[in-house]
Amino acid sequence: MTCGLNPSLLLVLLCFLHSTEETCPSVCLCISDAVSCSSSGLTKLPHSLPSFSISLDLSHNHVSWLSPGCFNGMSRLENLLMAHNQLKALNPGTFQNVSGLRHLDLSSNKFRAVEQHYFQGLWRLEELLLFNNKIARVEAGTLSGLSSLKKVYFSLNQITDFPFFSIQDHTHPFLSMLDLSSNRLTHLQWEDVKALPRLVQRGLYLYNNSLICDCSMYSVFWHWDLRGYDSVRDFKEEHICFINGDLRSSIQFLQQNRFFLNCTVEKPVLQPVTVLLSNVLVSEGERMRLDCQTSLTSTDLSFTWLSPSKGHITKANIDDNLINLLPNGTLEIRATKVNDSGLYVCTAVDIKQALNATREVNVTVLLPTAELFNTGYTTLLGCMVTTTIILIYLYLTPCRCIYCKRSKQYESSSLSSTLFHSTRDQTKSQTNKHVAFIDPVMNEEGTDWSLES
Ligand SMILES: *[C@@H]1O[C@H](CO)[C@@H](O)[C@H](O)[C@H]1NC(C)=O
Ligand SMILES: *[C@@H]1O[C@H](CO)[C@@H](O)[C@H](O)[C@H]1NC(C)=O
Ligand SMILES: *[C@@H]1O[C@H](CO)[C@@H](O)[C@H](O)[C@H]1NC(C)=O
Ligand SMILES: *[C@@H]1O[C@H](CO)[C@@H](O)[C@H](O)[C@H]1NC(C)=O
Ligand SMILES: *[C@@H]1O[C@H](CO)[C@@H](O)[C@H](O)[C@H]1NC(C)=O
Ligand SMILES: *[C@@H]1O[C@H](CO)[C@@H](O)[C@H](O)[C@H]1NC(C)=O
Ligand SMILES: *[C@@H]1O[C@H](CO)[C@@H](O)[C@H](O)[C@H]1NC(C)=O
Predict the structure, then answer these.
(1) C-alpha closest to that of 107 among 179, 29, 174, 27
(2) What is the DSSP string of 193-255?
(3) Quick one: which of 90, 76, 174 has its CA closest to 130?
(4) Ligand 4 pocket, 294 CB below 6 A?
(5) CA distances (Å), 258 to each of 262, 345, 405, in order?
(6) Does any ligand 7 atom lie closer than 6 A to the CB of residue 417?
(7) What is the mean pLDDT of residues 17-22?
(8) Is 388 in the pocket of ligand 5 (CB under 6 A)?
(9) 239, 221 in Cβ contact below 8 A?
(10) 364 lines ligand 7 (CB under 6 A)
(11) Angle, vertex CA 360, rays to CA 356 and CA 361, nearest 5
(12) Model pTM?
């Protein structure tokens, strides 16, 4: 029954052993499992780096050489920061025993190429930072096997070509950011780019390169723009291309598309491009307006709605005065019925560019009884939330407790009852106000889109 050693004593002993066995290099700072040797004027790695470290910061030094196996014995290492050093290349086997690396920062060094062997075996690597080097060449197999990759930063280099074909759904399922901006990409294999997983396309940054203006290039960006990808939308002005590759004739091609009016590449893309899904909740008898905001921006659009109860609805075929199709595509149903519930699909057609985009709205028309239940439920929920907030306020606010010890009982009960009553009275007196709880759901129609593509 009696266990001789006190566990905490054991822990202290272990810590003592730990720290005597592994000393922190004098130029570094060791805190827990993090070792920082940044800005220490190092030209090579310190001897005997502590094996227990999970994070090692060597940034802002002058390290120009890493010997094979230099991180041997640091098997727990997950974060290695080596930004702002003088590294030009990596030896085979540099990371041979640190396969647990998840975050590797080699930005602002002097790399000229990224060779196939550099990161091999780092299958847990999630973030790879290589921006601001002098990289001109990225070898085809560089990213193969790095199946945990999420974000890769290659911007501010001199890359002229990139092995897009090596990235596929099954090889890099989590890759959502590939930054190749501010490089020297001219001709890309656009077919390979279009074949990239959607997640990668969405997070592919290509602005400020030396792209040559042509229709296949334009069509790719045009579609990304249409889908509203941040990678394109946030850098519209920085997307430039050069006419015939002539560096004196650059075009901000997402802003001035005159040059591309002759491109016929859009024509084959006739199927609906964008599908936006949202849910709308209304009560029977209420007026409902469904807008048809799609990614098409032309002012000259024609709209068609497909409704579950009334079939196709166009401007021309409306024959009852219960529904209306407004010029901006908004469908109005004056008094909704339960059997108006279902999926509404609007197609906006841009005839000039032969494009159409669709928008889907899932409508649920609630019976008045369902609505009553809903009101009761939301009110109850509201009360519960209020009560919880009051309790949290009363019992968890630290500065109150010095003063309130004596009169706590009194204060808490009076405060809670007044607050409670006032909220309840408010909900009671403004019976229509319950809509406020449902409103956000209805407004979702116009604001909170999720983009499905
Ligand atoms: C490092 O890896 C090599 C080969 O992968 C292995 O032979 C060696 O024992 C490892 N060294 C340590 C210290 O783990
Ligand atoms: C574009 O790239 C060049 C280097 O290629 C860089 O100096 C410049 O700052 C970049 N501009 C922008 C707006 O990113
Ligand atoms: C578009 O094509 C027409 C005739 O094919 C040509 O005259 C015109 O210059 C072209 N426009 C541009 C901007 O390339
Ligand atoms: C949208 O484009 C397709 C071509 O894929 C066409 O068949 C369809 O009629 C278009 N939709 C509308 C409403 O014009
Ligand atoms: C929907 O219900 C109304 C009565 O509530 C009925 O008049 C109408 O015919 C129904 N419509 C369809 C398509 O079933
Ligand atoms: C369409 O027009 C109606 C009436 O003018 C307006 O209430 C609605 O907000 C407009 N919808 C959009 C998406 O602009
Ligand atoms: C529409 O909403 C209803 C109820 O919220 C749900 O049961 C149904 O699956 C939804 N339909 C689609 C296509 O999302």
Answers:
(1) 179
(2) HHTS-HHHHHTEE--SS-PBP-HHHHHHHHHHHHTT-HHHHTTTTT-EEEGGG-TT-EEETTT
(3) 90
(4) no
(5) 8, 32, 75
(6) no
(7) 48
(8) no
(9) yes
(10) yes
(11) 150
(12) 0.56
The closest of 106, 189, 80 to 140, measured between CA atoms, is 189
Regarding predicted confidence, which is higher, 399 or 160? 160
Give yes or no for residue 441 CB within 6 A of ligand 7: no
Q: Which ligand is nearest to the CA of 294?
A: 6
Ligand nearest to the CA of 284: 5
Cα torsion at 16, 39, 110, 248 (round to 10°)? 140
- From the CA of 302, the nearest ligand is 4
Distance 294 CA to ligand 5 centre (A): 30
DSSP state string for 150-176:
-EEE--SS------GGG--TTT-TT--
Residue type at position 55: S
Q: Which atom of ligand 2 is closest in space to residue 182's alpha carbon?
A: 2
Torsion of CA 115, 116, 117, 120, to 10 degrees: 130
The tens digit of pLDDT for each residue in 177-231 reads 999 999 999 989 999 999 898 889 989 999 999 999 988 898 899 888 877 788 9
Tokens read off for 159: 């890359």
With beta carbons less than 8 A apart as the criterion, state whether 322 and 334 touch: yes
Query: 343 has which bridge partners?
Result: 362
Note the pLDDT tens digit of each residue in 74-127: 999 999 999 999 999 999 999 988 999 999 999 999 999 999 999 998 999 999
Sorted by sequence, the CB contacts under 8 Å of residue 15 that are 6+ apart come out as: none
Whole-number Å distance, alpha carbon 445 to ligand 6 midpoint, is 12
Cα of 104 from ligand 2 centre, angstroms:
24
Residue whose pair of structure tokens reads 């290695």 in the numeric block: 80
For 237-279, what is each residue's pLDDT tens digit? 999 999 888 888 888 988 887 787 777 554 433 333 444 457 7
Give me the residue label for tokens 């196996």.
69
Closest ligand (CA of 206): 2
Q: What are phi and psi of 293, to 5 degrees?
A: -75, 115
Q: In what order do the strands lie in the sheet with 29-31?
A: 29-31, 34-36, 55-57, 79-81, 103-105, 127-129, 151-153, 177-179, 204-205
Ligand 2: centre distance to CA 325 (Å): 48
- Domains of the chain plus CATH, in order, are 275-368 (2.60.40.10), 410-449 (no CATH)
Q: Contact, 28 vs 40, CB < 8 A?
A: yes
283 within ligand 4 shell (Cβ under 6 A): no
Cα–ligand 2 centroid distance for 215 (angstroms): 24
pLDDT at residue 316 is higher than 70: yes
